[in-house]
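User: Sequence recovery, please. Input:
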């Protein structure tokens, strides 16, 4: 039985669960449309998590038939279309979700991320700032992280730095904010804080070519030869054709 059939079975069970009668209770209860909507949304999100965006659309569409103003269903469809590169449809469903829940920080933040990916930086910043106003939002540190990334794209390093610092005050274990702070401090030749941020970053995240190259440069500056050699080995082995590996090769030959 595939998952769509399972969902239909589940929804049928939900609908019938209120229809059992006894001699003392002859009237039938009405089925709960909210339960049916939520079951369809969860099924759609399950498909989305597995990367099966085409399969996700049918249950999410059914959820909207039950509740055309469901912010959760519109948000899920927005993420489906965003993953498929259907930017017009994604934008529409983000806006529909916000029309139902205009102050929802999760929707505001996700829409901001979408706008950032579309290089609509000023628009993205506006939605991130709205999301950040909710001081009880559990992912508020990520919102400030996204504000920092937006300012970086806008070539405003001081504003980016302030936003990453704010993110780290809320959650000191944010690897992206730690790495971006290391990059900013390194670019400003503030090597001691750059090294501190970088070493904290390595405690909470894996590495990519860019982070390994930054680590090599910092480790060599502080004469931490073991770390420098380890990072260089990883860069050459894991990312041999990357620009960072080429930069390392050029630095070693100079």
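Assistant: Recovered sequence (254 residues):
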């Amino acid at each position: 039985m595939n998952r769509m059939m399972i969902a239909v079975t589940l929804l049928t069970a939900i609908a019938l669960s209120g229809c059992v009668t006894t001699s003392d209770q002859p009237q039938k209860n009405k089925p709960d449309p909210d339960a049916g909507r939520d079951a369809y949304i969860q099924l759609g999100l399950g498909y989305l998590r597995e990367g099966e965006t085409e399969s996700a659309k049918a249950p999410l569409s059914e959820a909207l038939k039950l509740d055309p103003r469901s912010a959760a269903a519109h948000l899920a469809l927005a993420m489906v279309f965003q993953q498929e590169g259907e930017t017009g449809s994604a934008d529409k469903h983000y806006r529909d979700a916000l029309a139902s829940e205009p102050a929802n920080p999760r929707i505001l933040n996700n829409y901001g991320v979408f706008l950032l990916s579309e290089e609509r930086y000023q628009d993205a910043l506006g939605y991130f700032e709205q999301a950040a106003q909710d001081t009880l939002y559990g992912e508020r540190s990520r919102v400030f992280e996204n504000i920092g990334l937006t300012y970086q794209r806008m070539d405003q390093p001081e504003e980016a730095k302030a936003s990453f610092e704010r993110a780290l005050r809320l959650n000191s274990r944010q690897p992206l904010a730690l790495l971006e702070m290391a990059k900013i401090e390194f670019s400003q030749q503030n090597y001691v804080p750059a090294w501190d941020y970088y070493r904290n970053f390595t405690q909470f995240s894996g590495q990519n070519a860019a982070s390994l190259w930054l680590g090599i440069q910092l480790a060599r500056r502080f004469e931490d030869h073991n770390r420098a050699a380890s990072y260089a080995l990883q860069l050459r082995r894991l990312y041999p054709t990357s620009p960072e590996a080429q930069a390392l090769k050029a630095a070693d030959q100079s």
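Residues 1-27 have pLDDT under 50 and may be disordered.
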